[in-house]
Specification:
Blueprint lengths: L5 E4 L9 E7 L2 E9 L9 E5 L17 E3 L2 E3 L6 E3 L5 E3 L9 E2 L1 E4 L2 E4 L5 E5 L16
Antiparallel strand pairs: 1-11, 2-3, 2-12, 3-4, 4-9, 5-6, 6-7, 7-8, 10-11
The structure holds FE2/S2 (inorganic) cluster.
Length: 140
């Protein structure tokens, strides 16, 4: 596997949160999150999703310290939409029925690699493109 596309060790991906990373497409950067199923079924698969809610697409799910995960689902803290970790399906909330945008990754030798052809791996953590001085949108 191409070491430039290695995102993280599988053990670094939490089962009770998310791991934020940044993708690069030329000069453009986008954030994505890794999730690990880690269920009682023994399914320890890793999935990656673009880091924005399907209700308001300018709302990040993971703001840098991991998105909240409740009962195996990623929670958007703005209006409490929940997304299945494995499918990206919104099971509850204002965007119920919508899916998170997936990012192709694979696991090799206990590490997660980016396989999405259109992007390069930029690094772990936020893209740095966010205006932290603003509280963002207000209201529903
Ligand atoms: S912005 Fe995520 S539920 Fe409204």
């Amino acid at each position: 596997m191409d070491e430039d596309r290695r995102i993280a060790a599988v053990s670094e991906v939490p089962t009770d949160g998310t791991l934020l990373f940044t993708l690069r497409d030329g000069f453009d950067r986008e954030e994505a999150i890794l999730v690990r199923l880690g269920g009682e079924s023994g399914d320890d698969a890793i999935h990656a999703w673009k880091n924005y809610c399907q209700h308001w697409t300018d709302v990040r799910l993971d703001k840098g310290s991991g998105a909240a995960v409740r009962e195996g689902e990623v929670l958007c803290q703005r209006h409490a939409a929940t997304f299945e970790k494995g499918s990206g399906l919104c099971t509850h909330g204002p965007c119920e029925g919508a899916y998170l945008e997936d990012v192709a990754v694979t696991v090799h030798d206990d590490a997660v690699y980016l396989t999405e052809a259109d992007y390069e791996f930029d690094g772990l953590g936020p893209s740095g493109d966010h205006d932290l001085s603003s509280g963002g949108r207000i209201g529903f």
